[in-house]
Amino acid sequence: MLDFTVAIPTYNGANRLPLVLDKLRSQINTENISWEVIIVDNNSSDNITEVIENFQAKWPENIPLRYCFEAEQGLAFARQRAIEEAKGYFVSFLDDDNLAEANWVAAAFKFGQEHQKAAAYNGKIIGDFEVNPPENFNKIKPYLAIREHGSQPRLFEPEKLRLPPGAGLVIRKQAWSECVPSKLALTGRVGKVMVAGEDYEALLYLHKGGWEIWYNPTMCIHHKIPQQRLEREYLLPLGKGTGLATCQLRMVNAKNWQKPWIFARTILGNSRRIILHFLKYRGRVKTDLIPAFELEFFWGSLLSPFYSFYLWQKK
To answer: Distance between CA 7 and CA 241 in Å, rounded?
Structure first.
């Protein structure tokens, strides 16, 4: 068994992947760490295999660079396949637009060794923008997996849905295998379906199993954000899709008698938020992107109990 696995799920990421691999090939202070890199091709239609083969030809021999294929699209399926394929005691997830700083692997492995109750942990995620983000973007940047929580380690609060995103997340493989179902209810964004939350769902199962989830400030990645992800056509469906996962996430660790109350509270609470939002912004949602995003998130959250019921019927 190896110490550490870096898993990179990708869908049509042939143009993005080289930067990610270049950063991993340049990692420092890993001489005493046995580690590998796995590319999980989530049913791509580009020349991703050619890109990987070119890197394998000039990749360091002591760090395996492996390829595997996952036909069922969705980030949850790709990450589950990565867990199954990984030979590392720790398994980390990098998206194909996440650039790890030079000491990322070393810092991640050290933190896991020092925190034996941590099933999952993440670090700083800094936005690398192709164009300047819109005014007041800081209010919604966490929804694009841009997170900084200071310079000190800290525990996340799963019971309040305060959790790290899947980008840059490190998992203790044993904990995932014991606690996380092989098929989650939330599968990740596929095509035009922008429902998210699959990373939070997995973390909530780890919390349910008694494990801790941490923030590690010594780990840092840079998340490349192209112009298209800052436009209304992308952000508004993202807001609604993120909201649609709300009720399902609250149900993961709820007892059966609590679920009707969660269902009702989600509808009533978000109805109130929508009314207050309309009173505050009125017609500005047509021209101001940030309030428009927030409103879509509230609408998605309002509808999330019905989406949760739909997921339950699909089982």
So the answer is: 25
